[in-house]
Design a protein that fits this description.
There is one protein chain. By secondary structure, the protein is an alpha+beta fold. The protein has one domain. The chain has three helices and four strands; from the N terminus they run H-E-H-E-E-E-H. The longest helix has 35 residues. It starts with a helix and ends with a helix.
Length: 146
C-alpha cells in the first residue's frame, strides 16, 4: 500500500533527524572537554546518512515493466568522528597544557552546531508535516466509504 510507504519514509526521516539532534547536543555539551577516556580531547561527531534500500518486491520478480517510485527513506549507517584538527589555545595554567603552554580543545564550533541543529529541526518539522498530510489523505479515503 503506497500510503504506508509514505508514512514509513516520513518516519525514517524523523528518526534520522532526532539522531542528528542528539549527536549535535552531545557535541555542544562536550565543547570544552579536553580529556576523554582515550586521553585526547573530544572529537566532533557527525551522522553518516544513506538511502534506505529494501529487497525486491514480488512484482519485480515477475518482471513488471511499469516504472515505479522506489524510495524507502533514509537511515543512519554510522556516527563518525570529524578528523579536523583540534583548536590550540594558549593557557599555561591549564592542567592539560603542553610544555609550550598550549591546550588542545575539541574541534567543535558552537555556531556550526547551532546551524546544524536548526537544519535538523526544520527537516524534522518537514517530515512531521509530510507524515500528517499522508495520514490526512488516508483518513479522507476512509471517509469515502461512509
Amino acid at each position: 500500500m503506497a500510503i504506508m510507504r509514505a508514512l514509513d519514509i516520513s518516519a525514517s526521516g524523523m528518526s534520522l533527524q532526532r539522531l542528528r539532534m542528539d549527536v549535535i547536543s552531545q557535541n555542544i555539551a562536550n565543547e570544552g572537554t579536553t580529556r576523554t577516556d582515550k586521553g585526547t580531547p573530544y572529537r566532533r561527531r557527525l551522522v553518516v546518512v544513506q538511502e534506505q534500500k529494501k529487497h525486491n518486491t514480488f512484482s519485480q520478480y515477475l518482471g513488471e515493466a511499469q516504472v515505479q517510485f522506489n524510495g524507502y527513506g533514509v537511515k543512519a549507517i554510522n556516527v563518525a568522528e570529524d578528523q579536523s584538527p583540534y583548536k590550540l589555545v594558549y593557557d599555561p595554567t591549564h592542567p592539560d597544557a603542553d610544555e609550550e603552554g598550549y591546550v588542545e580543545f575539541p574541534n567543535v564550533d558552537r555556531l556550526r552546531e547551532m546551524v546544524d541543529m536548526m537544519s535538523a529541526t526544520r527537516s524534522y518539522e518537514a517530515n512531521v508535516t509530510a507524515f500528517n498530510a499522508s495520514k490526512s489523505m488516508a483518513m479522507k479515503a476512509l471517509d469515502i466509504g461512509k
